[in-house]
Specification:
Strand content of chain B: 15-25%
Number of strands of chain A: 8
Largest sheet of chain A: 6 strands, mixed
Structural class of chain B: alpha+beta
Structural class of chain A: alpha/beta
Strand content of chain A: 15-25%
CATH superfamily of chain A: Zn-dependent exopeptidases
Oligomer: heterodimer
Order of helices and strands of chain A: EHEHEEEEHEHEH
Strand order of the largest sheet of chain B: 3-4-5-6
Number of helices of chain A: 5
Helix content of chain B: 40-55%
Number of strands of chain B: 6
Largest sheet of chain B: 4 strands, mixed
Radius of gyration of chain B: 29 Å
Shape of chain A: globular
Distance between the termini of chain A: 8 Å
CATH architecture of chain A: 3-Layer(aba) Sandwich
CATH class of chain A: Alpha Beta
Chain lengths: 206, 211
């Protein structure tokens, strides 16, 4: 199960490029491409939004948190950075998880998954680094709000950048990024062992 | 006493009473105006005192290390040494370095924070938690994105870490309010660790009992 999160939407267009290009529209297009690629590999895929709407951070996280053994990927296009490069982010270090009767607090849902998220991020960043020269070789870390409340291996993929006005160049990027994400998820899957928290017995392979 | 002298005295006294009657309201007005002027100058003096404390212009210059974007890699930070008359008071010192950080480097391409953003207030709690309150422009003028928002926060925390050892962690407020994200991506609900070495374990950071 993979949960894809096209960021922004609704009243929040995200980054805006020349000629009215909106991050919220491009990432929706990207999500559709990733979805098709993953479904072709036999994955079940959910999207946090399929139209121009803006669910809250918690609503988006809850779609993954309600599943056992989900993988969460939030998709972004930045307004800065070297054009035609792509970065993958995992959550930056958090305080060790507090448990409440064996359950992890919602506010720190990502904490038990930090190392899995980094592994997933490294695999996908490796794929992206080969295709898009100038991209980092390894996953980066950042305090991304969306990732913090997500109880699953979770990464943010950020494409630079929204100022790419050439439609052909943007289309080429999107299909390349989608392909890298699919390859990365497929490569990561065998190493995904759910951490022993939240009442899930250790060693359950999804 | 001759009648003539009595007349002079009466005329003199009447004149004095009349003069007093005319002069008294004028005097009253002058006293009021004077009081107002004094109040203003007290305020002015207080403002000047705070400013001079913050600038401490006469103090000896020390080397402050500020973190703006790196020339070699604009997605990363690099330290720049700037001579500043740094205060010994940790909160004032923090204000000085952050104001300079906001003012920006010589090469404006290497800015990490929007030029119209301002630091409104800065406090340090006894446990080493600092609270920095920025104007709304910090959130509204910054290019939105994981990379640019993280770079902005890192430039603030790294600059504090390099110059103010008393600051252990930092909370960022926007116009006095706690907000969920900086500009749609970076989490501002928690505190950012600032100086990691020898940080006493906070009560929240105790090892969980995993079952």
């Amino acid at each position: 199960m993979v949960v894809l999160d096209p960021a922004h939407g609704g009243t929040d267009p995200g980054a805006r490029g020349v000629g009215g290009v909106r991050e919220s529209d491009i990432v929706l297009d990207l999500a559709t491409q990733v979805r098709h690629g993953l479904e072709a590999q036999g994955f079940q895929v959910l999207q946090t939004r399929t139209a121009n709407e803006n669910p809250s951070f918690d609503d988006r996280s809850s779609l993954a948190n309600a599943q056992t053994g989900a993988i969460f990927v939030t998709l972004h296009i930045s307004s800065t950075g070297i054009a035609s490069t792509v970065r993958v982010y995992a959550m930056r270090d958090m305080a060790p998880p507090q448990t409440n009767g064996g359950l992890i607090l919602w506010e720190q849902a990502q904490a038990p998954y930090l190392s899995l998220s980094r592994k997933l991020g490294d695999v996908i960043q490796g794929e992206l680094g080969q295709k898009f020269k100038g991209s980092p070789a390894n996953v980066q870390t950042a305090s991304v709000r969306q990732l913090r409340t997500t109880a699953a291996p979770a990464i943010a993929v950020e494409i630079s950048n929204v100022t790419i006005s050439d439609k052909a160049e943007m289309d080429r990027m999107l299909s390349g990024v989608a392909d890298s994400i699919v390859r990365g998820v497929v490569a990561f899957r065998p190493s995904y062992v759910t951490p022993a928290v939240a009442g899930i017995p250790p060693g359950v392979k999804q | 006493m001759t009648p003539r002298l009595r007349l002079y005295i009466v005329i003199g006294l009447t004149g004095a009473v009349l003069a007093a009657a005319i002069y008294f309201p004028i005097l009253k007005r002058r006293v009021k105006r004077q009081a107002k002027v004094q109040q203003q100058s007290e305020e002015q003096a207080r403002r000047e005192l705070v400013q001079s404390l913050a600038k401490n212009t006469n103090g000896p210059l020390s080397k402050a290390k500020l973190f703006w974007a790196s020339e070699a890699d604009e997605s990363d930070l690099a330290p720049t040494t700037v001579d500043l008359p740094l205060s010994n008071d940790p909160a004032l010192r923090s204000k000085q370095v952050l104001d300079t950080l906001l003012a920006g480097p010589v090469d404006s391409e290497l800015r990490t924070l929007p030029p119209d953003a301002a630091l409104l207030a800065f406090y340090i709690l006894p446990d080493g938690t600092a609270i920095a309150d920025f104007s709304e422009a910090l959130a509204t003028s910054i290019p939105s994105g994981v990379q640019s928002e993280q770079l902005a926060v890192d430039s603030i925390t790294k600059t504090l870490e390099a110059n103010v050892p008393q600051v252990r962690r930092l909370r960022i407020l926007i116009h006095g309010q706690q907000v969920e994200t900086l500009a749609g991506h970076l989490d501002l609900t928690g505190a950012f660790p600032v100086s990691t070495p020898a940080t006493p374990a906070s009560p929240q950071a105790t090892t969980p009992s995993r079952k």
